[in-house]
Amino acid sequence: MHTDLVAALDIGGTKIAGALVDGHGRIQARAQCLTPAREDGETIMRAVEQVLAELTASPLWGRATALGIGSAGPVDATTGTVSPVNVPGWRDFPLVARVRAAVGGLPVELIGDGVAITAAEHWQGAARGHDNALCMVVSTGVGGGLVLNGRLHPGPTGNAGHIGHISVDLDGDLCPCGARGCVERIASGPNIARRAIENGWQAGPDGDGSAAAVAAAARSGDPVAIASFKRAAQALAAGIAATATLVEIDIAVIGGGVGKAGDVLFAPLRKALGDYATLSFVQRLAVEPAQMGTDAGLVGAAAAALARRADPAAARV
Ligand SMILES: [Zn+2]
């Protein structure tokens, strides 16, 4: 792979991170600020421009040949716009044009954050060497992305693989997206904690009522905590099995805060997959924890920029 640098932006509801990344996925320079997520669109864009200004001040900047953006979604790569659910000041915000203007016209590639972490896991992490993979982030929400036939599959608008909003419970609870019984409505961290609390689980003396605290309780044998993780695992397994049956993935990679729960999640998940992934061609489906850490979004955005540089005809904006 070409060893020159690409620039990357990872834009979420909490932070805006930027980096210069080399052809081996190593970060050579970085900048970061908090996302002023409750402010108006221009204020948020100024935060992005501040991160870009730090990057362009780097002595390495001159070697950057493209820029990749992984953004909280929905994104629309056909128009270069973003409308992140948790950043209300941006609706159809022309992020690609604004970033391109801020970096002197470099080619810019936009993908959703779930697609970005998938690109990172496929390039450097747990999905490396797998031609057909589903990668998921299970944390405050549930996102994901697909690798098909050895290539990242962002879909026309950059959102493909959004497994969190596949319904696995037809008459289930209403999801903020408008549908019912979505994977996210059952398996996200806040929903794991909510279900445990509704069923009588109580946070410890420190008052921590998070999914991580429920995971700790499950590890020490609390039956309500175990049951809440089991239910989340079932929802994830049903979504993963549906995906595998549709497009024949051979591995599902799970990251995010809930993905760090370890056996509390993965043991019931692998068991539930046996109940839902039943046809011969999906029975050998592997489920593995993600390997990329907090830089997955940046590394994945860089991977998308590199792929675009290698194949400019595939550029979508
Ligand atoms: Zn939904």
What does the model show?
The structure is a single chain. The two termini are 24 Å apart. The protein is an alpha/beta fold. The mean pLDDT is 94. The protein has helices at residues 41-56, 95-102, 113-124, 183-187, 189-198, 211-219, 223-247, 256-259, 263-276, 296-310, and strands spanning 5-11, 15-21, 27-34, 64-71, 75-76, 81-82, 108-112, 133-138, 142-148, 151-152, 251-255, 286-289. Helix 3 crosses helix 10 and helix 7 crosses helix 9. Strand 2 (15-21) and strand 3 (27-34) form a beta hairpin. The protein is built from ten helices and twelve strands. A five-stranded mixed beta sheet has the order 3-2-1-4-7. Zinc ion (ZN) is lined by residues 165, 175, 177, 179, 182, 184.
Mean of residue pLDDT?
A: 94
Radius of gyration from the alpha-carbon trace, in angstroms: 20 Å
Global outline:
globular
Q: Find the count of extended strands (DSSP E, 2+ residues).
A: 12
Number of helices: 10
Distance between the terminal alpha carbons, to the nearest Å? 24 Å
The helix content is 25-40%
* Oligomeric form: single chain
Report on the biggest sheet. Answer: 5 strands, mixed
Helix/strand-derived category reads alpha/beta
